[in-house]
Amino acid sequence: MHCVYFPPEVGGLESHVYHLCRALAAEGHEVDIVTSRSMAGTPAHEVMDGVRVWRTWFPGKSPLGWAAHSLASLPRVMALAREADVLHAQAFSSVPPLQIARAATGAPLVTTFHTSHFLVRAEKPLWKGILGRLVAAGDHNLAASREIAEVAERLAPGHPVEPVTNGVDTDLFRPMEPTLTREVPERKRIVVPRRLFPKNGVEYFVRAVPEILARVDAEAILVGDGPEGPRLRALVDELGIADRVTFLGARPNAEMPGILSSADLAVFPSLMEATSVAALECMACGLPVAASNVGGLPEIVDDTVGGLFAPADPRDLARVVAGLLAREDVDALGAAARRRVVASWSNARLARRHLDIYQRLLTRKR
Questions:
Q1: How far is it, in rounded angstroms, from Cα 164 to Cα 142?
Q2: Residue 185 main-chain phi, psi, to 5 deg
Q3: Quick check: 189 and 261 in contact, CB under 8 A?
Q4: Are 159 and 234 in contact (CB under 8 A)?
Q5: CB 93 within 8 A of CB 70
Q6: CB 33 within 8 A of CB 51
Q7: Which residues pair with 191 in a beta bridge?
Q8: Do residues 99 and 109 make contact, with C-beta atoms less than 8 angstroms apart?
Q9: Residue 206: DSSP 8-state
Q10: ∠ CA(346), CA(305), CA(196), 5° rounding?
Q11: Is 112 helix (H, G, I), strand (E, B) or coil?
Q12: What is the CA radius of gyration of the chain?
């Protein structure tokens, strides 16, 4: 595997790759992941849950930084590729070093295209040709949502891209005893597990809070950090809702099930989204989900497990959220969400699909 980011970095891409690698290792396969030293203090090499992690030089979080890391990782990639049966690029910047490794070893190359970074760049004339060539490079292409798959296929006509929804570790993410207490037991609690970046639309949730409070007694917990933090805190103060909105900051994955189990509803006000791992994690913990009707979110959320609202529309967001919190069967929606994830989007299901793809490619190679 090659991916620019990996835990302890936090995010949907990082979570997807970690849990997939972990599941493959648990099945008895040897898994190496080449990633970056994007966080100070992380070791150059370690073993995490049976996965061998190799971190290489990383200059910064930008397209130039991704490209530099891709090049700098090549020596480690080539050393590992000599013993590898399959090469898997988990981000578009991961494709070039694995293309070189495939040319040297003959091992098949699988690619997965994730995140809004791909969608944003796919609209830019300079990037269209680059991304099209990266899609065409794969022996089997995957995408984290139907939207990304369709865009990728337009960039590289004749090269099919299979949408595969991200998986969730349903043993880790499950309903459990809440870890956050409530000062007012009867008050409804909303959790927004979103990094504080503009594309995640947290501003629109904050602007919706006064209208939500006018309809239902509620409080909100924002889990995540990012550059929008200071501005959002100022907006909370400006709207006079500081007593009902708590900023928890970033929390490690191990703490999230208890935090999520402390809430009644999860909200995802994204402006762009692939298939949200965080939304699936909330559903696996038995939480109904209210989400923007964008990207891959409508592929996992409907009125049987929550509701959808118009993106960047605080009024519609407030309408849907307040309506869900007022329902007497809101717990039943959460139970249905858990069943849906276990049936369709468990990490075990994700690993099985990947193993099927790898085996087919190896059989074809032979």
A1: 6
A2: -55, -35
A3: no
A4: no
A5: yes
A6: yes
A7: 221, 266
A8: yes
A9: H
A10: 80
A11: strand
A12: 21
Q: Which of 306, 301, 314 is nearest to 212 (CA)?
A: 314
- pLDDT of 145 reads 86
In this predicted model, which residue has the larger pLDDT, 365 or 113?
113
Q: Which alpha helices (H) appear in the chain, and where do they start and end?
A: 12-26, 63-72, 74-81, 95-105, 115-122, 125-137, 146-155, 202-215, 229-239, 256-260, 277-284, 314-325, 330-344, 347-365
What would the DSSP string read from start to end of 146-172? HHHHHHHHHHSTT--EEE----B-TTT
| Residue in 43, 37, 34, 94 with CA at minimum distance from that of residue 60 | 37
Phi, psi of 335 (to 5 degrees): -65, -40
pLDDT at 196 over 90: yes
Residue 146 pLDDT exceeds 80: yes
CATH number assigned to the domain covering 12-167+346-365: 3.40.50.2000
> Which structure tokens are listed for 173?
């993410």
Q: Give Cα 268 distance to the centre of its chain.
A: 12
Burial class (CB in 10 A: 0-12, 13-18, 19+), 173: buried
DSSP 3-state of 145: coil
As given in the structure block, the two tokens for residue 280 are 């699936």
Chain-centre distance for alpha carbon 70: 21
By the 10 Å C-beta count (0-12 exposed, 13-18 middle, 19+ buried), 114 is classed as buried
Tokens 């006509």 identify what position? 157
Average pLDDT over residues 303-327: 97
Residue 289, helix vs strand vs coil? strand
Where exactly are the structural domains of the chain? 12-167+346-365, 188-344
E strand spans, 57-139: 87-89, 109-113
Write down the pLDDT at residue 62: 87
- Give the rounded distance of the alpha carbon of 236 from its chain centre: 26
Residue 43 is classified by DSSP as -
pLDDT at 155 over 90: yes
What superfamily would CATH give domain 188-344? Glycogen Phosphorylase B; (3.40.50.2000)
Cβ distance 226 to 254 under 8 Å?
no
Q: Annotate 55-75 with three-state secondary structure.
A: EECCCCCCHHHHHHHHHHCHH
Q: Which residues pair with 314 in a beta bridge?
A: none
Do 12-167+346-365 and 188-344 agree at the fold level? yes
